[in-house]
Write a structure and sequence with these properties.
The protein is of the alpha/beta class and 364 residues long. It folds into two domains: 185 residues, Glycogen Phosphorylase B (Rossmann fold); 153 residues, Rossmann fold (3-Layer(aba) Sandwich). The strands form two sheets. A seven-stranded parallel beta sheet has the order 3-2-1-4-5-6-7, sandwiched between helices. β4, α4 and β5 form a beta-alpha-beta unit. α7 packs across α13. The chain starts with a strand and ends with a helix. The protein binds uridine-diphosphate-N-acetylglucosamine.
């Protein structure tokens, strides 16, 4: 029986942990899964609602760390997590993705000689100004089992000198959650409440510091988005960081006078209900690039690089950067049906990654 501490901290972690914990609980003669929530995200809309929507059991430990600078947040998680590891003596600690909670917990375990499994290992944007890129590189370098979503990630890890026997291509567990919940999301009233049934609309998410923390960059993005919203409504569930900057930079009126509709962050099922019916998605999120590829929805990524190149090579994703002209051109091509992008679902994005993750843990 393997005792596993499963770590969650921020919004993009919850849909990755849910299928893994469900599978471990199903195989209860092989696994004893515990959940540790670091509290990196804490708003009802950024955290609790995901436990409800995804049916994740209540955390066994809650570190209640909250928002701070990167150093303080990472350090606080480490200090709070270490005694739990010492007390529980798990066989494995399982971390997902690339948030500060991921590196903080992995680092605690590496120092204590506790084995770490990293789900979604090997993704690289090659942009070290991104905090997530630093988290990815460091977490991979100290993990004992590297579970990857695509074969380009395996190649990245090998190039960094990580031995082949630690790397296991298991597929995309976030897509397990997507397929598992797609039917249920149809019961959500999100689209109906926004009066979007039977009409074209776009969905926008924007929260990367590189896009929303600098007034000039954010302003140019807004120019493009306002133009696009003249063709179809743009629904924009706003991350707390972005909401604060819209106020701070004095953009609220510009947005209010456009066809961009700001709404509160949505829960998992409501957001799926919304984006699954969109004509077009514009985003700087990592996960949404993958979810749109899995559903065949055109996606424009408002970044200069992506750690998820398979969504471009096989999927619906187009990297458009932050230049307003380029964004508008790409959006209008999609809306005029002159975009030639065809889509395939990448290998092993089949809804069964959690099973393979559990098998890999037993196999080591
Ligand atoms: C974090 C992750 C990012 C991920 C994103 C998803 C890191 C380095 N970044 O970024 O990879 O894409 O989560 O959302 O781990 N805030 C609230 N309520 C909350 C959480 C945050 O109001 O529940 C506000 C706070 O003002 C906080 C700010 O949002 O300072 C940023 O939160 P933080 O967790 O530091 O980073 P994110 O931008 O959310």
């Amino acid at each position: 029986m393997l005792k596993i501490l499963n770590i969650v901290g921020a919004r993009p972690n919850f849909m990755k942990i849910a299928p893994i914990v469900r599978e471990m609980r199903r195989r209860d003669s092989e696994f004893l899964p515990l959940i540790v929530h670091t509290g990196q995200h804490y708003d009802e809309a950024m955290s609790d609602s995901f436990f409800v929507d995804l049916g994740i059991p209540a955390p066994d430990y809650h570190l209640e760390v909250g928002s701070h600078s990167h150093a303080v947040q990472t350090a606080k998680i480490m200090i709070a997590f270490e005694p739990i590891v010492l007390e529980e003596k798990p066989d494995w600690v399982l971390v997902v993705g690339d948030v500060n909670s991921t590196i903080a917990c992995a680092l605690v375990c590496a120092k204590l000689g506790i084995k770490v499994a990293h789900v979604e290992a090997g993704l690289r944007s090659r942009d070290r100004t991104m905090p997530e890129e630093i988290n990815r590189i460091l977490t991979d370098s100290i993990s004992d089992l590297l579970l990857t979503t695509s074969e380009d990630a395996d190649e990245n890890l090998k190039q960094e000198g990580i031995s082949n026997d630690k790397i296991k291509f298991v597929g995309n567990v976030m897509i397990d959650s997507l397929f598992y919940n797609l039917e249920k999301s149809k019961e959500s009233k999100a689209r109906e409440n926004l009066e979007l049934n039977d009409q074209d609309y776009a969905v926008l998410t924007l929260h990367r510091p590189s896009n929303v923390d600098e007034k000039g960059v954010f302003s140019e993005l807004l120019d493009a988005l306002v133009s696009i919203s003249e063709k179809l409504p743009v629904i924009f569930p706003v991350h707390p960081r972005t909401r604060a900057n819209i106020e701070k930079f004095g953009f609220a009126e510009r947005v209010a006078n456009s066809n961009i509709k700001l709404i509160e962050p949505l829960g998992y099922l409501d957001f799926m209900n919304l984006y699954s019916g969109a004509r077009l998605v514009l985003t700087d999120s990592g996960g949404l690039q993958e979810e749109t590829t899995a559903l065949g929805i055109p996606c424009l990524t408002l970044r200069e690089n992506t750690e998820r190149p398979i969504t471009i090579a096989l999927g619906t994703n187009i990297l458009v950067g932050t230049n307003p002209e380029k964004i508008k051109h790409a959006a209008f091509s999609v809306l005029n049906n002159s975009s030639t992008k065809t889509a395939k679902i990448p290998p092993l994005w089949d809804g069964r990654a959690a099973e393979r993750i559990c098998d890999a843990l037993l196999d080591v």
